[in-house]
Amino acid sequence: MKINKVIFLGGNRFNENGPMTSFIEICKKKNIESLVLCRNSRLEYPINSQENLREHLQNLSINYIENEGVNLSLLKDHINNDTIIFSVNCETIIRSDLIDYMPNKIFNYHNASLPSQKGASSHSWRIMQDNKSTHLTIHHLTEEIDSGEVVLEKEVIFPNSIKNLKETYRYIEKEEINLFNDFIKIFENGFTNKVKSDKNKKSFYWPRLNTDKDGFINWHWSAKEIVDFCNAFDEPFGGASSYVSGSRMRFKNVQTDDEDVYFHPYQFGLVYRKDNNSIWIACKDGGIKVNNITNEDGINIKLGDRFLNTKT
After folding, report:
1. Are 301 and 270 in contact (CB under 8 A)?
2. Checking DSSP bridges between strand 83-88 and strand 106-110, what pairing results, if any?
3. Residue 285 burial (10 A CB sphere; 0-12, 13-18, 19+)
4. Which of 118, 93, 208, 110 is nearest to 152 (CA)?
5. Less CB within 10 Å around the terminal CB: N or C of the chain?
6. Secondary structure in 3-state letters for 71-103
7. How many CB atoms lie within 10 A of CB 295?
8. According to the model, what pLDDT value does residue 311 have?
């Protein structure tokens, strides 16, 4: 099957030029028409080029439909025999009428392994688990989340230097482009290179994360667990949180320190050292060093201050 048109559902990552617009640029080079169906919130997402997605699509001369849902009646007039639908960061469940209308022609890009990393916020969960490997995956889209047959996957091993989400996404950018290029090519082969599913792989599903609601530190975790948690909510997002004197503090650029020092549980959360740039906080199995801490109230952190899980 030759592709003449791709209908993209979803959008880019927050503060990123990709992956969707990177895929669109590949289509442009191959003279494949692109149409984007996108929510208003995704169109307003900022991207690296100091535009939002809406402005970027306009500058690329890419047609888009702004709509909160995805259904057959909305797209039917835009579909022909050489059209596929490709979902990238789409937050809407695709209805069965559209799936039935385009059997084996609707695909989803998932930037993590399947079925072991189903769901949203995959790399935040991966960082929390200190897992250094994953697969970039393209699979057939079904009504069940991240459960369609895998068409193509590419393994990625992250070096220890990759700590947060911003570094993660930058690291996989080139591999995402390579994956989508390979995906376009396999249509000429009739999908003879489908990945065989491994029925022995365990399935794990993790829900979407929200930094403001989910990013609160528990001071009974170990120092390493806290650092992994902080990395999971670091750039490009606001940072993990804790409270001092009722003021919410945001942590970024956090690392373990003083691993050889024992702290009693009553000391967990106490600031025991500081300089002009950083603070050190006692935890289980050592301390953590916070190199970037911000708050909206202008509170200055003092030696002996105690961080709490809750505001009061």
Report:
1. no
2. parallel
3. middle
4. 110
5. C
6. CHHHHHHHCCCCEEEEEECCCCCCCHHHHHHCC
7. 15
8. 81
The closest alpha carbon to 294, from 237, 256, 219, belongs to 237
Query: Distance (Å, rounded) from C-alpha 196 to C-alpha 205?
Result: 20
Helices (H), the chain: 20-29, 40-43, 53-59, 72-75, 96-101, 122-128, 165-185, 211-214, 223-232
**Cα(164)–Cα(166) distance, integer angstroms:** 6
Containing 271, the helix (H) or strand (E) segment is strand 271-274
- Cα–Cα distance measured from residue 111 to residue 195, given in angstroms and rounded to the nearest whole number: 16
Distance, CA of 282 to CA of 280 (rounded, Å): 7
pLDDT tens sequence across 28-77? 999 999 999 999 988 988 887 678 999 989 988 999 999 888 989 889 99
CA-nearest of 191, 293, 180 to 242 is 293
Alpha carbon 147 to chain centroid distance? 18
Question: The tokens of 188 are what?
Answer: 């000429």
Strand partners, 240: 251
Residues 6+ positions from 226 with CB-CB distance below 8 Å: 217, 218, 219, 254, 283, 288
Q: For residue 310, what are the CA distances in angstroms to 210, 289, 299, 302? A: 17, 21, 17, 19
Q: Are 15 and 38 in contact (CB under 8 A)?
A: no
Tokens 């959008």 belong to: 11
Side-chain-side CA neighbours of 117 within 13 Å: the count stands at: 22
pLDDT at 199: 53
Residue-wise pLDDT tens digits, 186-224:
876 665 555 555 556 789 999 999 999 999 999 999 999
237 contacts 276 by C-beta, under 8 angstroms: no
Structure tokens at 3: 């592709």
